[in-house]
Model the fold of this input.
Amino acid sequence: MLTLSEISKSFGGRTLFSDVSLQVNRGDRIGLVGPNGAGKSTLFSLILQTDTPDDGQVNFERGITLGYLPQESAPAGDETVVELATSITPDFVEVSRKLKAWETTHPDDIDPHDNVHDRFNELDGYQVEARAKKILKGLSFRDSDFDRPAREMSGGWVMRAHLARLLTQEPDLLMLDEPTNHLDLEALLWFQEYLKGYPGGVLMISHDREFLNQLVGSVLDIRHGKLTRYRGNYEDYLAQRAAKDSQQLAAYKNQQKEIAHLQEFADRFRAKASKAAQAQSKLKQIERMEKIEAPVADDATVGFSFPQPQRSGLKVVSLKGVDFSYGPAPVYRALDFQAERDERTVLVGPNGAGKSTLLKLLAGVLTPQAGERILGHNAQSGYFSQYRTETLDMSRTVLDEASDTPQRVTEQYIRTVLGSFLFRGDDVFKRVSVLSGGEKSRLALVKLLLNPPNLLLMDEPTTHLDMPSIDALVKALKDYTGTLIFISHDVYFIRALANKVLHVNAGVLTPYAGDYQYYLDRTKASSARVALTAGLTDSRPTQQRESARNAPAPDTERKDQKRNDSAQRQARATERKSQQQTVRRLEKDIADCEARQAQLTLDMEKPETYAKAGAAMHLNRELMGVQHQLETLTADWEAAARKLADMGEAT
Done:
């Protein structure tokens, strides 16, 4: 479907990647990962042909269609939300426009001029619109939103409408750049399940670890000018990459030992006439070696911890009898809520249910029309907004904005904290207005760190953060001794931190005194969503469904069912036994390979190995071959063991 052949690209004398090759087939689910600035977006631009490579070629299968969702700033004009979602081709847009204009001016006529109606039917216009509306609902749009002008909505909602357009279009290759940034948790889970059944290929850039784990079958790692493909999901990629780096480091050390021995011989005997020829031969042997590179360490990542705040009282914050409305639309009536010390609460619920409003009421950003907000003894709140511009002054420099804190701290300390968030050197003199989304997120976190609260209220804190930054934030929040209340669509982040779930819907708060999995188990939200996405929801009335489910089956049907069940169990047992044999065989092959690797490593360390010409080189080549074989066997074993585990769960 798509082939990249020996692609190279440089900017300003810096090589982003060199001799990169890639093949994408129909049905592939591929995640593209790597440090910020490694070239992920540039690789997308080469595939989309909005930029050209310095060398190499980008080739497509004839007739292939591409769909691309940028990270942010997709346009919106005067079209309605549903018109944007159905703008799948210029032809469809033009026909839809003509048909709408005709129906507006000739409402009683059936067939508009120029056979527009026939053309609309040829394009499956009514089916397209129905599909678009179903997708829009999955992405949390309401029926009342369909005919709203898209430009009246926020940037995040416009991005959702563009995502709906791509899913309605169903291109052969769907290219997504951080597609979860503008989704709430409910919409993300729907989108995740929808993509599992998507008929085309998917190539995505994402910092959402759980999203990648659920969807991708391979990971492309772009770093240090190279593109490496790993089989499996993101967790598989991490394990394989660590193993590869370990093996490469061992091979590098072994080769360096050999080079040192050869160099030592040459240095010792090059001045001796009887040995000069041999010494020169050793030097040439070093020159002819295909040098193994040492694994390159990742670029600097965020490293930080929260200075621990003073201890608060048991009751940290309360809302009593709170009413709040936006204009005539009520959000909460007589709301009571209380958070206690050490709780880690995640707010979940459908979009528009009032989660962000509740967080702002707790932070004191919004003032209730009735009732009161009460901070507990020694409680101090800090609010991390979903919209970073709400807490940052765009006209200031990074250093000036960070220095705006009630704490008495030196500029050196502030610059040290900024440096831990990758604001180094002259970066601290940048205007906040020119910072990227990720940089603004990091700066907002710096401001919280410089004045640490014991009640931390965070709205989508992982948006625009890369994976190392998210991992560092998770670690810091695990060590944080204050009270945390947050909203997030990042399931990995939620699972790592939440010890309490608060479901918010229609002004009603429902607490679940357990972690996120406990909440899912109690509400069965995940299984219900899967059934809905797969189209398995039974449309019959509840009583009729229960009657049908509980009705006794005829004897013949029961016997047939028992025979079928028995045959299926036998087939599963046979398949599982075969898979167990495959796993055991691979484990034996891996053990044999590891034993041979250990023996070769010992041989490489023996001085006598280097007394015989070519022996060390032969051993090193065999060692590299064994290491490659071990890498392949390990990947095969992981896949086989995972399949066996799935069989166990299925039974």
Confidence is low (pLDDT under 50) at residues 525-557. The longest helix spans residues 555-605. The CA atoms of residues 477 and 497 lie 8 Å apart.
